[in-house]
Amino acid sequence: MEKSIVLLSGGMDSVLTLAIAKQSFEVAALHINYGQITEDKELWAFNKLCDYYEVAQRLIVDIKYLTQIGGSSLTDKTISINDANLSNQDIPNTYVPFRNANILAIATSWAEVIGAKGIFIGANQLDSSGYPDTRLNFFEAFEKMIDYGTKPETKIRIYTPIINMTKKEIVQTATNLNVPLEYTWSCYRNNDIACGTCDSCALRLRGFEEANLTDPIDYLIRPNYL
Amino acid sequence: MEKSIVLLSGGMDSVLTLAIAKQSFEVAALHINYGQITEDKELWAFNKLCDYYEVAQRLIVDIKYLTQIGGSSLTDKTISINDANLSNQDIPNTYVPFRNANILAIATSWAEVIGAKGIFIGANQLDSSGYPDTRLNFFEAFEKMIDYGTKPETKIRIYTPIINMTKKEIVQTATNLNVPLEYTWSCYRNNDIACGTCDSCALRLRGFEEANLTDPIDYLIRPNYL
Asked: Of B9, B142, B144, B200, which sits 20 to 30 A from B159 (CA to CA)?
C-alpha cells in the first residue's frame, strides 16, 4: 500500500477524510497547532482519532507564527469571534489568511521526505464559511505548484474527497463508516463544552439536523439552525 | 509608495533583492529561522542589513518544524554537509524539501494582513545548486495559487529580480548599488568564519573571482574556483 498524509485537525471533516484515505492508503497523520484558542481540545481529538484508526506515524507541528501575523479572530485574541450568520456570504473574521497554503506546504515537505504519494485534506467548498483557501481551484493550483517546486522524481497528489459534500452528507457518510464523532472537535471558542453558536458549531449542528441524527458531543446551547 | 515584503535571509542574493525592491516599494522584511546551523549569524546579518536600509517593519518567524521533518543536511545534524562540487548537476543534500514554498506561504499570509502588494525573493536559477524551488516556473505557479487561495480583493505578485543573474552579475550589481556585502552571510557550515568550501561559499567565491572583485568577509580557506 502506498503512503499518504492526512491533515487531521480533529474536526468532523478531517476524520471522515482519514476514514476514506484509510480505504486505499497507509496513513500518516499531520496535526497543526497554529495558536488557535481551541488547540488543547483539538490535540486531544487528534490523538484519540489516531489511536482509534491505529495511525502509527504522527507529526504535530507548531506554527504559532500565525499569531504573530494575526488578522483573524482565531489567532488574535483582541478580535472577538462572531456568532454564526449562515445566510451571510461575506468571509467571516475567523478566516486565517492563507492558512491552508501554510499547512499544505508543511505536508508537502513531510511527504517528500517520507515518500508519501498523496496529501488528503478535508476541505469543503459548499457548507464552509466561504474561505478562499477551501476551494477546488486553489487545491488544483497548489498541486501544480508542487510539481514545479519538488524534485523531478517526486509526485504528490492532493486529495479532497469531501470537497463537494454538504454537511448533511458528511454527517451521513461518517455515520455509515462508523467514524467515532464523539472524539471530534469543531468549536472555535471553547476547550471544554462546545458553544453551539460560533460558525463552526452552527454548520456542524445544522448538518446533524438535516441528516436527522444527533450530535454525540455536548453543547452549551443547541439552537435550531434549520 | 506601495508596500512589498522582502525575504531577507541575510545572504548576498537576498540583500541585493532588498536594494532593488527599495527603489520602487516601501519594504517590510521577513526572516525565517528554520533550524539551520548558521541561524545565529544569519539573524545578525538580517538585523544589520535592516538597520542599514532603515527597514522599520520586520518579522522573524520560527519554523523549526523543518528539523522535525529533516531530509536535509541543513536541518538534520546527522547528515554532513558535503564540500562543493560545482560541476555536479545532482541536487545536493543541502536541499531542504519544499522550503521556499513554506517561506512564501508565510510571506503571503503576512502580505494579506499588512496589505503588501508584492513579495520579493532573491532566488536564482542559474548559479544555484539546482534546487527545484528556485526556478521561475515554480514562482509563476505559486503566484497563480495565491490568486485562488486569498480573498478576492487580495492581489499579490511575486518578484524575482535576480533570478536570471549569474553570481558574477549579482556581485557586480550589488557592488554598483553599494550594497554592504560585509554584513551578509552565505556559509552553510559556520557561524564565525565562513568555511570557503561548502556549496554556498563556493558559489559566492566563484562569483567574486569572475567579477574580479574581493569578497569583504573572512574565510578559513579561499580555494580557486575558476
From this structure: B200
